[in-house]
Q: What sequence folds into this?
């Protein structure tokens, strides 16, 4: 589990948590029909925080993270991202989405566009960046995720790990201030998990605000400054990683950790 | 090299095998025949039966087709030629095609102006080039946009100001959209529709009259009822194809939209249009539509038919495209949303390219059907090629000629439809090569 990140020295110098609030969620509730998926969520994320969200399947982790960029709509409470409250106002939604990057479990790259086009699309159309400049930025980020030589291929020609790194690069091209990850490694083979986690660690080292739904506990221990445990649509426990893993308080957390860590 | 069997003993490969070319397939016609025609005795028997059937069909058809009657001037002349050559068997009388092919192609279009529809065809093919095959220079796109107006002018003639004034309406629409889209997207769209419509209704007529009286430039005008033959089929077919694709896409998006009223309107439109036979819509176009129009307006019948056929095929296209839209994974919509693309951007850049790629066979299928259905205009008195066969038979020279005309018309339609089918295959292959 943790071997993927074990052999890496983590540079914590830039991982500073500031006082500035990046995401503020107050008493947020969400229903799917009559099913109460998210119950009274309160969460404040400061700029520079790296938060790992874990919990059993169906506990609402994905739903929570998807509410933050309005892929899902919440029914009550408040979500404030970068000082803008999410409401049904389309202008606000598009503004927030262009500032919050998101990586999906199944990458969701655009199969009919090359890697480079995948990366330049949003900057050109949403940010109105000139094409040359957008391509330069894209190449910069593709170099960062170590696949500049694949720029002119199509997503279908890449391995899963490479595709996920492209997806990360694609989000980064919008220069987001917050990155959301929804189980970015759970569709990947162990070898590829490492390359994606490495990319995510590098992002953390540069001080990116990150919310990751993941079961990579090694990553959580190495990088996160806070771990959140969710069950049945509620935040059951949150703590800094050392305490969370070594001294869990709630019985549910203990059970979950014993299932996921212990053999 | 180690020759130890890997499964039976501890094994270490000592030398790696270098890459080698694949074995060449044994070639040759004999092998092909054996493998494809006579692999087993049963298949061999079937092959023989099939060959016999093909032979029977051809031995009856070919003599009919091979007939020395190209020069005949009338049906009785045909019979004389055949009798003189000692051939009593029933044979085709091709003289009618030589005599009347121009009429089958152009209907009653004035023969001194045949160059106009011919040139219009060239303009059409050139204009479609960049749309169908991409990678043309950018300025060529301008020619493509102008080509419908040029084609209209060439075929119908009249003052050159009319097509220019109509085109101006579209330009006005674009400007209105640009000017007001900043205020609000919906206001922009409404303006883009309202401004040109008002212009066409109230300003364009007087404008054209004035310009025509100042500078009477133009071609001799040809009335719609002089259009006919394959020309008419192509005019109706191509216009309807070009217009129904965007309309169908918009209807499909409307049907898939979250907005209640838009969805219901699209569904209602699609179901009503689809649920009624085309021939009924054509009768509606020819008879009923005049009741709804202000008295005195003489709305061209060909134009009415084009509108009806367009609406009809748009409903089918909408359903085909809807299938394509449904096949695009939800993750693609979410990927586009998460990057902050607006609805129209994500449709235009992400969803539609993928949905249309899936829909190509269905779309082309609909177009082929539509193109052949243009022959139905025969029933409302337009002289499409089939209608002209009646006109040709009405002359005493060719009274009694059927199959030769139908074969000729069939070949024309086959060439057009087969090209569409081939183009669809080409496009599918091209898109497949571009992205796996
Ligand atoms: N579109 C939907 N409609 C109705 N119910 C849904 C929908 N999406 C998710 N759910 C339900 O909401 C609950 C939370 O789902 P969610 O995907 O957030 O769980 P998760 O914690 O991400 O689980 P996993 O670890 O399996 O991804 C689940 O019980 C699920 O069945
Ligand atoms: Mg999930």
A:
């Amino acid at each position: 589990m943790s071997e993927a990140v074990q052999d890496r020295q983590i540079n914590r110098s830039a991982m500073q948590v500031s006082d500035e609030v990046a995401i503020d969620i107050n008493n947020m509730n969400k229903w799917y029909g009559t099913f109460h998926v998210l119950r009274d969520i309160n969460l404040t994320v400061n700029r520079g925080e790296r938060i790992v969200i874990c919990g059993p399947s169906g506990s609402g982790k994905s739903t929570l993270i998807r509410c933050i960029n309005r892929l899902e709509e919440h029914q009550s409470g408040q979500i404030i991202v970068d000082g803008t409250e999410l409401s049904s106002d389309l202008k606000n939604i598009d503004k927030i989405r262009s500032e919050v990057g998101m990586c999906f479990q199944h990458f969701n790259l655009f199969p009919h566009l090359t890697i480079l086009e995948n990366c330049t699309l949003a900057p050109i159309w949403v940010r109105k960046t000139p094409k040359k400049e957008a391509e330069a930025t894209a190449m910069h980020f593709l170099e960062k995720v170590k696949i500049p030589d694949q720029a002119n291929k199509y997503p279908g020609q890449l391995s899963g790990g490479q595709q996920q790194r492209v997806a990360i690069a694609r989000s980064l091209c919008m220069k987001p201030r917050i990155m959301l990850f929804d189980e970015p490694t759970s569709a990947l083979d162990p070898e590829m998990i490492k390359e994606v986690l490495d990319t995510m660690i590098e992002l953390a080292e540069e001080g990116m605000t990150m919310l990751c739904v993941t079961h990579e506990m090694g990553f959580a221990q190495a990088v996160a400054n806070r771990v959140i445990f969710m069950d049945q649509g509620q935040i059951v426990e949150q703590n800094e990683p050392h305490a969370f893993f070594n001294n869990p308080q709630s019985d549910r957390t203990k059970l979950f950790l014993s299932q996921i860590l212990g053999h | 090299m180690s020759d130890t069997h890997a499964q039976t003993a501890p094994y270490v490969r000592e030398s790696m095998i270098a890459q080698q070319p694949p074995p060449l397939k044994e070639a040759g016609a004999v092998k092909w025949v054996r493998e494809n025609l006579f692999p087993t005795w049963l298949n061999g028997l079937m092959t023989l039966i099939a060959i016999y059937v093909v032979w029977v069909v051809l031995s009856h058809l070919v003599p009919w087709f091979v007939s020395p009657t190209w020069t005949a001037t009338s049906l009785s002349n045909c019979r004389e030629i055949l009798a003189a050559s000692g051939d009593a068997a029933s044979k085709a009388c091709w003289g009618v095609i030589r005599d009347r092919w121009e009429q089958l192609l152009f209907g009653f279009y004035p023969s001194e102006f045949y160059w106009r529809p011919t040139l219009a065809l060239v303009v059409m093919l050139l204009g479609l080039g960049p749309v169908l095959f991409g990678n043309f220079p950018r300025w060529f796109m301008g020619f493509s946009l102008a080509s419908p107006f040029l084609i209209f002018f060439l075929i119908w003639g009249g003052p050159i100001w009319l097509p220019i004034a109509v085109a101006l309406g579209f330009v006005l629409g674009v400007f209105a959209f640009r000017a007001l889209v900043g205020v609000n997207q919906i206001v922009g769209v409404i303006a883009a529709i309202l401004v040109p419509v008002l212009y066409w209704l109230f300003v364009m007529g007087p404008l054209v009259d004035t310009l025509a009286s100042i500078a009477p430039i133009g071609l001799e005008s040809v009335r719609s009822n002089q259009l006919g033959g394959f020309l008419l089929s192509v005019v109706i077919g191509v216009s309807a194809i070009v217009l129904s694709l965007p309309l169908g896409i918009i209807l499909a998006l409307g049907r898939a939209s979250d907005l209640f009223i838009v969805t219901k309107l699209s569904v209602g439109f699609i179901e009503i249009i689809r649920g009624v036979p085309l021939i009924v819509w054509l009768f509606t176009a020819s008879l009923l539509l005049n009741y709804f129009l202000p008295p005195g307006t003489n709305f061209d019948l060909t134009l009415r038919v084009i509108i009806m056929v367009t609406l009809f095929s748009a409903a089918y296209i909408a359903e085909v495209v809807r299938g394509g839209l449904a096949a695009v994974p939800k993750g693609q919509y979410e990927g586009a949303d998460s990057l902050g693309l607006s609805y129209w951007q994500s449709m235009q850049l992400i969803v539609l390219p993928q949905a249309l790629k899936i829909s190509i066979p269905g779309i082309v299928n609909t177009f082929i059907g539509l193109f052949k259905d243009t022959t139905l205009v025969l029933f409302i008195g337009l002289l499409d090629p089939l209608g002209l066969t009646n006109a040709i038979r009405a002359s005493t020279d060719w009274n009694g000629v059927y199959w030769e005309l139908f074969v000729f018309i069939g070949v024309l339609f086959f060439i057009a439809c087969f090209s569409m089918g081939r183009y669809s295959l080409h496009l599918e292959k091209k898109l497949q090569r571009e992205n796996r």
